Amino acid sequence: MNDDKHYIDSIYYQLELTAKYCRHLGNQLFEKLKLSITPDEFAALDTLNSNGEMSQRDLAKLILKDRPSTGRILSSLEKKGFITRVADTKNNRLIRKIALTDDAKKSLKKTTVIIKEYCKKIPKACSEMKVEELRRAIIEFRQSLQKVVEINI
Question: What predicted TM-score, i.e. pTM, was given to this entire model?
Answer without folding.
Answer: 0.82
